[in-house]
Amino acid sequence: MVRLWVPKVRESSADEQLELQRKAKGKRPFYFSNPDVDKLLSMIMALTGELAIARDRIDTLERVAAAKKLFSSEDIENFELDANALEARAGRHKRLLREVNRIIIGELEDLEEADEEDYSAVVEQVEYDDR
Amino acid sequence: MSGPYVEQNAHIVLPKTDHDELSRQHFVRSFKEHIVESLHPGLRLAYEKRARPKYLAKHQHEPNTIQEVADAMKPDQHYQAWSSLLRTSQEMMWSSTQIPVERAINDLAASSTDQMTLGSLNLNPELKIPDYHTAVDIHCQPGGYHTEYIEGDVAQGAIYDRAVYLYAMGQMGSNNADMGDSTVAWLKQTHPEFSPTRILDMGCAVGHSTLPYADGYPEAEVHAIDVAAPMLRYAHARASAMGSTVHFSQQNAEHTEFEEGSFDLVVSHILLHETSSAAIKNVIKECFRLLRPGGWMLHVETPPYEGMEPFDKFLFDWDSENNNEPFWRKSHQLDLEGLARDSGFSRETLQIMVPSAFQETQRTNTFQGGDFGGGGVWFVYGCQK
Q: I need a surface site. Which of A31, A55, B6, B79 has the fewest CB within 10 A?
C-alpha cells in the first residue's frame, strides 16, 4: 500500500504577514496581437530589474570591501554558506519569483473572482464523468 | 536626463528601504527614463514612416482625431512595445514602493502617529468615497488612495509619496513639490499684493503641493482636504515632520463643511482630471462658495488638448485608457470658461501655462505619456471671485 509522507513545512514569516493588494482594480490593457508577448515583456523587465539590483549589491560589496580593505575575490570564491544563509537565499528566490510572475498572479486574482464557479464545474465534470 | 541626480528628501516618515528595495526603486526610475529617452522618440518615427502612410493609403485622408491616430498607431509594433513597457513600468513602480511598506506597515502607522505634532487631523469615517474614485484604482495604484489594511493605516500614503518621486523621475524636486512651488512662484510674481490669510488645498493626497503654500505664506492658515484617510494621516505626519503647520480633514471637494466666503485662496493640483463631469461642476461651484470676494481659485493641471496636433493629443491621451484615468480625456477638453460662468464666477478666467519652478533647464519641455514630471510647464486654470 502506498502511503503518503507529509513533510513538516515551516511557514516563512513573509507568508504570515499582512499582504497588500497588488493588482490595481480595472482591466489591464494588452498591446501586442498576442497578449502573451506583453506578459513575457513584463516578466523580462522584472527580471532585468532584479538583475540590476543584484549587480548593484555586488558593486556595493566590492566598494565597501575595497574601501575597508576587508576581503578579496578569492575570499568570496572560497566562502562556504551555512544553513541560515541558504534558507535566506531560498526565501529571496521565492520572493523574486513572485515579483517576476506578478502579471500572471494578477491575472489569476482576476480569474479567481470572476470564474471560480466555472472552474469548479470543470473539476466536477472530470471527476464524475464516469457516472 | 541631464543635470544632477535628485534623490527624494528622506523626511522622517518616508518608508525606510533596505539595500535591495532601494535598488529596485532606482531601477524603476531608470526604466522610466529609458522609456522617455530611448523609446518615446521612436513613436513619431513609427507614425511618420509606417502608421500614417498606411492610414493615408487606406482612408485617403490624414488621421485627424484621437481615434483616427489610434487606428493608425495601435497596430504598429513600436507603439505596442512602448505601451507594453510603459504599462509594465507603472506596475513595477507600484510594486517597488509597496514592498518596503508591506514589510513595515505597523511601524509606519506607529511612527506616523508619533509625528503628528503640528496642525491638526480630522477624519470622517462616515464620508462616502465617491464612485469616480472607487470604480478603478486611479493611475493603477493597487487599492487606490482609500484602502486601509490596519488601524491608523498610512500605507497608501507612504506608497504614493515614494511612487510620485519615481513617476516624476525626480523632476518634481526632492519634495515632489513642483506644482505647488510653481504656482506660488507665479502668484508672488504676478500678484505680489495678494496676501491670503486662509488657504484651502483640495484633493491634497499626501500634501506634496500643500506645503509650498504653508511655506510661501507663513502668516496664512492652511487647510487641506482629501477623501482618503490613509493619505491624510500620512500627509499630517509628513507635514509635521517637515515643520509645516497644516490642518488636514477628510472631506469631498464637491461639498465641504467650511463656511461660505471663508478662504482667500482655494487651490487643487491634478485633482480635476480624477473626478467626473458632475463632480467637476460641483467642485468649481464649491470653490466659488468658499471664496471671499477678491479671492482666487487656482487649479493646476496638465495642459488641455486644444491646439495640439492630433498625434500629440493621441500620445498625451494614453493615460485615459492605459493608466486608469477614466476622466482624463473629457477633462482635457472641457469648456473651462463656461464651467466658471455656470459656477458663479464673472471675471475672465485664467488659463495659462506656468513654467516649472524646479530646475527649468533640466527638463525635456514636452508633455508626453509617462513623462508627467518632464513637461517643464503646468497648466493653471482659475478665476478671481
A: A55
